[in-house]
Amino acid sequence: QVQLVESGGGLVQAGGSLRLSCAASGRTSSTSVMGWFRQDPGKEREFVSAIRLSDDNTYAADSVKGRFTISRDNAKNIVYLQMNSLKPEDTAVYYCAAKLVGLQITRSMAYNYWGQGTQVTVSS
Description:
Blueprint: E1 2-7, E2 10-13, E3 18-26, E4 33-39, E5 46-52, E6 58-60, E7 68-73, E8 78-83, E9 92-99, E10 113-114, E11 118-123
Parallel strand pairs: 2-11
Antiparallel strand pairs: 1-3, 3-8, 4-5, 4-9, 5-6, 7-8, 9-10, 9-11
């Protein structure tokens, strides 16, 4: 089992920044990819960004490229999502997720463990 706890969400004005953190515990050595997804009420869960732990390759949705950066602190088992130039359409609950095996990076069903989510609200 892998436990994930997100933090860092909040209310920010458009153009501002937030940094989300995801602290992982448990059998983290079995994890191959860590990802961030977001979800608005009534909408599908949407891929935001991911990092492959074997080589630190990163992936990002087109909607956040150039604005969001995923990174990790391997010693602390924490994954970060630095979000800059935030827009009102970035408002959502942001979830951290861990994936054990497989090549699929952007589909939520490929991930095995999920955090409880943290709310990000961007005001215009």
